[in-house]
Every structure is written in structure tokens, then in C-alpha cells.
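Supplementary Methods S3. Input chains for the assembly prediction are listed below.
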Amino acid sequence: MTDGTSAPTATPSDDAVGSTAVPVESGLAEASESGLPSVILTIGLTKTYRGGLIAVDSLDLTVRQGEIFALLGPNGAGKTTTVGMLTARVVPTGGTALVNGVDVVAHPALAKAAVGVVAQANTLDRSLSVWENLYFHGRYFGFRDRAARAAADELLERFHLSGRAKARIATLSGGMAKRLMLARAFLPRPAVLFLDEPTAGLDPQSRLALWEILGQLHAEGETILLTTHYMEEAERLAQRVAIMDRGRLLALDTPDNLRRSLGAGGVLILKAEGDLDLLAQRLRLMRGVLEATPGPGELRLRLEETDGAIAEVVGVTSREGFPLRNLSLEETTLETVFISLTGKDLRE
Amino acid sequence: MTAAPTLTPALSEDPTPPPGASRPRASTWAVMRGLLLRDLTVLDKSLGEFLHNTVTQPLLLVFVFTYLFPLIGQGVGGSSEAGASRFASLLMAGLIAQAMAFQGVFRVAVPMAIEIDVTQELEGRVLAPTSVSTMATEKIVFGAILSLFAAMVVFPVAAFLPTTPVYLVVDWPVLLTLTPLACFTSAALGLTLGTVLKPASVPMLSGTLALPLAFGGAIFYTWESLDPVPWLQYLVLVNPIVYMSEGMRAALFTGVPHMSLGAIYGALTGFAVVFTVLGQRGFKRRVLA
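Predicted C-alpha cells for the full assembly:
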């Protein structure tokens, strides 16, 4: 040990377990289509629990440095198990997972040094105060006393918890507890932050506050992988989204591309008087209208692109002499994409 | 909730090094020290409760057995001064062993069972960048420290409070080797128990486990004195506290009979190894899916 010789960062060590060299696999993690190095790489990652449940089935993922990556899927999709495997708490039964170039199965301790985790449940240390939760987390990551103190102070300030430094964990609101867990996970400046359903059960204001913090961390270059079953969360935060269901990856792309993959700009709902069957026939002839379904008092039009098409639809409708009473647009959301991929609702 | 936090300008402008930029990893020792420091901090916060919990029972037992009973004419160990002294001595060793065992076992086992099952707090600590076995080892080390601390707290109570004098003749080599072994064994048993204990059964522990361990632990009698009840004499051999009590007798007194040192060291070493293996295995099973 080199007590007292190191700067207020984590300590180098002569007696590290595992190995001194960074594992060889890092070469694998270098290239990804965007040119950015990948921080997470899984190949055929699989977890079969005792009893035969296949929680994650041959997952191939690449998460690039600096991106916010969302795993979107309903409960039981395998998101939490995936995060568990990537953070060395769940042992895979097949495949490979590299985090920051480290094989999580071969070098779990080394992999844990590269990750910060915000679990879904409140895993804060209830025997310690708010400040102590941060301080000791720093100590677990090898910070010296002074460095751990400084880091705890700084993060409390930054995550707007300074006023609660001495508070007991039990007295924190759900939003504060989540912020503290995020501060704790971020404290050792991990190569990648994992957040498992970060805003589940939070009130809307706390959710916004958390989103804003995540946005700031992203702006600073932090790589973030979050799981969520709120499509709005994935759409708002993530550069890329992986849609999972029953342990399998169904689609992986940017939210825009995922929406476009449905070939639908959205659904226009048109309320008008008159023979809507006739109107539907006319509108079907229009370019960009993929489908026109008349219903009682309204007509649903599936559009390829919404830009421009709406004006044309309105034009045709009035030219044909149908008094238009209302017009609304349902844009394609990730939820629509999810439903079209799985045939079921995200909240099921 | 307060309003949505805004970015502190100084921080956003500060070009912090890229996240995860190969910061050297903390050594096993550094992580272990951090975990130990945390446990000691928590102990410090509940020190009053710890002392109260450790001292109350021995204090009451010493009071009842060595003060009250002789006074009201139902003294244990005979009516003679020598008999009473002999009993006070063998009781003292037993009480130290019991404190050592109970604090080591239950203060590791109970919080662990709760942190694993109920509060899921352990999940937060399992993220420390070290192996699961290092974490389990830290629990044993901490339990052993508690166990030793308990023994030191109980010693003056059991040695100096009895109205009848105790024959204190310290065998230092035995005391200095046996105490750490007994403390370690207790903590390893605590780790094992913590990984199998269901939090719901914690309130029942005193009846289901603590009392049988204590009454079958050669605390109030020497193992040899069970000669007339052979089945019991053999049955209690599965109880590690028997060897701790007998060991403390060997370390602290002459004139009080005790089991052979070979049997004491052999059995405690065996228990230490078995509980360490079981505890490590159980801990791994509980924290890794």
C-alpha cells in the first residue's frame, strides 16, 4: 500500500486482485459504426435462471461512449437481468459481456470499478447519514479520507442535497433518495452509469429533475445506460433505444429511426360530416396516405409523412364539400413501435 | 421536492477528465478498509446499545448466581466458600465465552439477513469494486472485532463483581491464541447464519437458537461435570460455545477442570474452517444471481 503518497483521487495499488493489466479484450471494444469507442459490448449474452426461465436470450448490444442508451421493454423483458450481468451481480450463463473493455465474468471486481449503478429499489445504507453514504462509497472505491470527503461535499452540493447532509435515509423523499443514489453511483466517475427504471414511482416533478441531471451528466460526456418502461423517458433522453421483450432484442436504433421503421408519420383523425366512406375513397388516392379507415363520425388516416400531408388532406376534404369539424394528429411513438413489434402494450 | 435543479455553471464549464478515464483501481485492502470503517462507524453510532446488550445478561447472571443465591441460601457449588468461588470462576469463563459467541454470531447474522432480504441495502455495498469473497471476509473480520470487544467488556463484570473471589490465573499463550480463534469462529458462524436466516424468524432467535446454545454451551457447568449424563455430554459437543467456555477456563484459571487443549483447539479450528467455507458459499449465493 502506498498510504499518504497519492493525490486525492483513488489510490493506485500494488496488491490489486485480479490483474494489473487491463484485460486484452479492449481491442474488441474499439470499433463501432459511429467511430466512437464502445463502452459496453455484449455478444450472445444469455441468462437462464435455475428452473429454466430464460431471462435474457442471446443479447448483442453495443453502447458507445458518451451516449444515453435506453433499454425499453415491459416488466419481465430482461432489462434488470441485463443490467445485473453488466454490473457483475448476475452471472451470465452464456455469451460474453465487456464493460469498458473488461470481461465481467473473468474480472468482476475490475468491471465493478468501471460502473456506477442506480438500482430500482432504494439500496442506500440506512445505518448511515446522507453524507456518509457518499463518503463511504468513496472509501469503498479506494478514495482516501480527504478525497472522499471532498467528493461527498461536492456531490451533495451538485445534486442539491447539501441541506440534508446529516439527514437519515428514512427521511428522504423518493426523489431525493434517487438523486442520492445517482450521486453515489457517479461519485467514482464511472465509465458507464446504469440506471434501472430511474423514475419509476417518482412524482412528475422529481422525474423532471432527474431527467435534467441526467442531461447534464450526458453533456459532460458520461455514458449512461438506463432501463425503462416509460416510452417518453426513452424518447426524451436516449440517443439510441433497444426494445426488449421476453429476453430478446427486438429492435435497436435511434428513436427517430425506430418510428420511421413503422413507415408511418402518424395517424390523422379527421371529424367531418357527410359520407365518410366516400371521403375515405377519395383520400386513399392521395399520395402519402397509407390507410383510411372510416368510423362513426370520424376518419382515421395513417400517413407516411405528416409534413405537408395534413394541409393536403384538409384541402381535399373541403374541396369535396365535407364540412370539417375537428382534426387531430397522433404521432407515432415508441409505444406504437413497441406495440407493432410485440402486439402488446408496454404496461401490460 | 424542490424545483428542478439547475446546472452549477462552474461545473459545466470545468472540463472534467473523461468519465472512467482509466483511474487506477482500488486495492483489495483499500476496499476492505472502507467496508470495515463503515461497519465500525455504525457500531460507534450504536455503542450504547451494544454495551447495554453485551453487559446486561452477564451482569444479571453474576448478580443472581454469585450474589443473590448464596445470600438466600440456595448457592450453587455448595455452601462452602471454596465451592462458591469455584462456581464463580467457571461461570466467569462461560460468560466471557457466551458474550464472545453471541455478539460475534448475532451481530453479523441479523443485520445481514435484514440487509439482504428486507432493505436490499447490501446490494448497494456489493457494488464496491472487489470480489464477493472479500466482502464476506470483511464481515468475518468485523464480527471477530465485535466478539473480542464483547469479551473485553464482559471480563471486568464477570471477574470483579462476584461477591465470592474468582481464581484468576492467566495462561497467556492460551489466552492470546484461543481468543482470536474463538472470535473468528463466532463471526464465521454469524456469516453462515446470516446467509440462511429468514428475517421473519429473527424475533424467534432467542428461543430457537440463543437459549439452546447458551444452556448447552457449558457456560454454567464444566463439560467434565456432565459425566453422569453421557448422552448430553456427547450431544453438546456439536455446540461450538462448549469449546469456547472450556477454552476460557483453560486460559484464565487453574483448579477448574477443562477439556484437553487439543480437543479445544482442534474443534474450534474445525468449526472455523467449516463455517468460513459455508459462510463464503452462502454469501456468494445470496448476493450473486
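Chain B touches chain A through 52 residues (CB under 8 Å). The radius of gyration of chain B is 23 Å.
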